[in-house]
Amino acid sequence: MKKINKDLLTWIIIILFFTAVIVLYNKINNNQYIDQGENTPLPNELHPTVEKKKNTLLKKATAIGIDVVITEEVRTVEEQNDLYAQGRSKKGEIITHSKGGESYHNYGLAFDYALQNGDGEIIWDLHYDGNQNGESDWFEVADIAKSLGFTWGGDWKHFTDYPHLQMDFGLSINQLQKGLRPEVKDDEQLK
């Protein structure tokens, strides 16, 4: 009986320890989430923090002579599945490894960008230096985005996605699929 009580007490202490670690981790990282449940509808606009940071990115890029164009924001599951089919069941190159519901675009936490050259054309040229400062405009935009807290798809090793920027707020796709969402703070509300 004493052995069972001792084992039970050990497991309770272990569970409490890991619970405390998770709570502390979330408080330290200021990651606060709302559990909306698995059946919650997907957003149809960017999370307010992502929207604000996107606008800051555009202003900072403009200030150094780079014209950035946002080419994609929130995608529906159907739109994501259509992109996933490209290079598989549809003609074209594979441009994503994420099916519908598996992309941060589906949760309003990602967007894609391109550049606009002096002729007004939208381009995806990684070497273009329209502001003529000796640096690639594409990488300058990525650096600004990263300084604002975005993850850049150009840094990914498994599938490089140069136009992609996202903020995951510490949430995995699995957590998002289960209904967890980053909290919107009062000062993040868009007017």
Question: Brief overview, please?
Answer:
With about 190 residues, the chain is α+β, with helices and mostly antiparallel strands. The protein is built from five helices and seven strands.
Can you give a write-up of this model?
Strand 3 and strand 4 (122-123) form a beta hairpin. The chain has 191 residues and is of the alpha+beta class. The longest helix is centred in the N-terminal third of the chain and has 27 residues, at 2-28. It is built from five helices and seven strands; from the N terminus they run H-E-H-E-H-E-E-H-E-E-H-E.
Helix/strand structural class? alpha+beta
* Radius of gyration, taken over Cα atoms and rounded to an integer in Å: 21 Å
- The helix-strand sequence is HEHEHEEHEEHE
Biggest sheet statistics: 5 strands, antiparallel
Runs in which pLDDT lies below 50 for 5 or more consecutive residues are none
Give the integer mean of the pLDDT values. 89
- Distance from N terminus to C terminus (CA atoms, Å) equals 63 Å
Shape type: elongated
Helix content: 25-40%
In total, the number of strands is 7
Hey, roughly how much beta strand do the residues contain?
A: 5-15%
- Total of helices: 5
